[in-house]
């Protein structure tokens, strides 16, 4: 599931910015937070990480970490109720091939999240030189295992294995990543319902819903057209009656298009690509990109930076996700949600 | 296949407008055609069908009828070569349920087109009160029949039959309409290839190609998000690296978006909805809509009118499809092309 540009990192200097002012469902500009000492390190594309001026208007910070926590807590209660009533424990199988460090971290985070909510996780670590047949056999085994309700193949796979073949082999009833073309086709079609929606774009839309950001009739722009985020995010926004435009590497003057967006979702993994001047005043901005940028002033030696030049954008937008602690934690929450939904469907549990 | 708003009508007053000036692959404004006596009847939404002024610049008319003829002639040669070399005749099965007059006309046209190119057509006319099971059984029979390479269920089906169930039952290898969600999913995904692309949007893109209209990097706007035209047309444009926006009934101020389109495809079935002022000067305009509009001055008592106010648009656009004889004939040509492609795939014929 998901590529390496997505994470669910849970700590960062950015998390200090996460606070929210909500009154009767409406958003108020959050009050001046004074002078925050954000690192001044030069980051990609010349976005100025200036000290926040106390006179600038500021966007509501969409707290993905907090929302993900609420979702996980809800799932935890539901999982426990299911176990009590019908004795079933949801099961999520994760297949990891090879020793990609970042993949291993994601798998560990998923396992931890499963434990938190009470979902049983089945981890299968296959050696880097496993054959396609061996991976297919493992997928097939989980397809047939009634204690497994969701199957996730951690991407990327070693280059000698055909990703399509592996993903196509996952039973559509257990495709909790929502990457099977049949699920994507249903997502694209009016009047059809996918069994699962890919986790990261689902998390983006869930955040918009939870912050009462109107989608219907609004102009939405998605930057990036990947199979795992950009494209399904655009399809989801369209299902909710937004007027959607998709920007990609071949788009000329993308800023002219983004400036028309009431809702902007960026998922390209280009640090600080989207400047404040790209954003329509009052827009809701969702940043899916996440990259390490060297920063000697931090203990780790790097910071995590999104596609959006946060400091500039937060002065123009009405609501914005931070990086990290924005979309990242929602991805795992949606994976747990998809796994639980799958279990309910298998056992006809309401 | 396709809904009632698509047709392949082959005669009309509009056909008098079909002529083309092409020089070395570049488009020149076509010269003044003098005073054409187009009917002055009031048509939908107040589009003025004024007498064409000789001083107005005029768009190239994209002659779908002529291009469809060329495609059919090419297929005819290929079908004949296939028969000669491997003794195989492509087969297209059409299932028509009930006695919808328009559907019957389309089926007749398809049969005629099949005969023209040498494709064997199998027609199955089922009574209006056929059960879903009976229709499914027919689909299944054609799925198993090796002399059938394409199956087409004429839409709309009677209301007691679940369209989804029927379309899903068509073998994906014979889904020449390209409506199966697995084909749509592959169409939406980067790096995947659908077995078939829906005929009408495929015909639109084919016309753009045949008129050397650049798609890559251009702004494209699709009006309408139907499963059979708007949505797949948007996906196709995106596959060719256009920056695509989709407009629909919930879009506010659609004309602000269409005015940015280098390529505009309209597929809503609202006569003359798109006015000249909606169009960017120099845009290529593809009109998929087709509706009957009462017109006592014609022998039939009606005219066929597209979504685009042709008289206005043709003064602003650089290229435009007429209605009829624009996209309509291309739909059937693409159906024949899909059927032939399917046959080649079944018999591994190059």
Automatic annotation (TrEMBL), chains A, B:
<keyword id="KW-0511">Multifunctional enzyme</keyword>
<feature type="domain" description="Tetrahydrofolate dehydrogenase/cyclohydrolase catalytic">
    <location>
        <begin position="62"/>
        <end position="177"/>
    </location>
</feature>
<keyword id="KW-0378">Hydrolase</keyword>
<protein>
    <submittedName>
        <fullName>Bifunctional protein FolD 4, chloroplastic-like</fullName>
    </submittedName>
</protein>
<comment type="pathway">
    <text>One-carbon metabolism; tetrahydrofolate interconversion.</text>
</comment>
<keyword id="KW-0560">Oxidoreductase</keyword>
<feature type="domain" description="Tetrahydrofolate dehydrogenase/cyclohydrolase NAD(P)-binding">
    <location>
        <begin position="198"/>
        <end position="345"/>
    </location>
</feature>
<dbReference type="InterPro" id="IPR020631">
    <property type="entry name" value="THF_DH/CycHdrlase_NAD-bd_dom"/>
</dbReference>
<dbReference type="Pfam" id="PF02882">
    <property type="entry name" value="THF_DHG_CYH_C"/>
</dbReference>
<keyword id="KW-0554">One-carbon metabolism</keyword>
<dbReference type="Pfam" id="PF00763">
    <property type="entry name" value="THF_DHG_CYH"/>
</dbReference>
<dbReference type="InterPro" id="IPR000672">
    <property type="entry name" value="THF_DH/CycHdrlase"/>
</dbReference>
<dbReference type="InterPro" id="IPR036291">
    <property type="entry name" value="NAD(P)-bd_dom_sf"/>
</dbReference>
<keyword id="KW-0521">NADP</keyword>
<dbReference type="InterPro" id="IPR046346">
    <property type="entry name" value="Aminoacid_DH-like_N_sf"/>
</dbReference>
<dbReference type="InterPro" id="IPR020630">
    <property type="entry name" value="THF_DH/CycHdrlase_cat_dom"/>
</dbReference>
């Amino acid at each position: 599931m998901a590529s390496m540009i997505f994470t669910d990192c849970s700590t960062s200097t950015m998390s200090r910015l996460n606070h929210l002012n909500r009154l009767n469902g409406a958003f108020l500009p959050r009050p001046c937070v004074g002078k925050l000492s954000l690192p001044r390190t030069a980051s990609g594309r010349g976005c100025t990480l200036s000290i926040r001026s106390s006179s600038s208007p500021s966007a509501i910070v969409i707290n993905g970490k907090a929302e993900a926590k609420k979702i996980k807590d809800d799932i935890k209660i539901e999982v426990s109720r299911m176990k009590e009533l019908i004795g079933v424990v949801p099961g999520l199988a994760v297949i990891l091939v090879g020793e990609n460090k970042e993949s291993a971290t994601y798998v560990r985070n998923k396992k931890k999240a499963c434990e938190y909510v009470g979902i049983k996780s089945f981890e299968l670590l296959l050696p880097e030189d496993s054959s396609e047949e061996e991976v297919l056999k493992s997928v097939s085994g989980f397809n047939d295992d009634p204690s497994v309700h969701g199957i996730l193949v951690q991407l990327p796979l070693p280059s000698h294995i055909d990703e399509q073949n592996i993903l196509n082999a996952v039973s559509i009833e257990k495709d909790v990543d929502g990457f099977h073309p049949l699920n994507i086709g249903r997502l694209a079609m009016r009047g059809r319902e996918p069994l699962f929606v890919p986790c990261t774009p689902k998390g983006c839309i869930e955040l918009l819903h939870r912050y009462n950001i109107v989608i219907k009739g609004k102009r939405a722009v998605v930057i990036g057209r990947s199979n795992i985020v950009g494209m399904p995010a655009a399809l989801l926004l369209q299902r909710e009656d937004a007027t959607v435009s998709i920007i990609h590497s071949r788009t000329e003057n993308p800023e002219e298009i983004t400036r028309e967006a009431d809702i902007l979702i960026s998922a390209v993994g280009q640090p600080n690509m989207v400047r404040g001047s790209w954003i329509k005043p009052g827009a809701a901005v969702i940043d899916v990109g996440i990259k390490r940028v060297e920063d000697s002033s931090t203990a780790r030696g790097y910071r995590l930076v999104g596609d959006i030049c946060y400091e500039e954008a937060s002065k123009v937008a009405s609501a914005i996700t931070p990086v990290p602690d924005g979309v990242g934690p929602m991805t795992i929450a949606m994976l747990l949600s998809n796994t639980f939904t799958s279990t309910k469907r298998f056992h006809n549990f309401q």
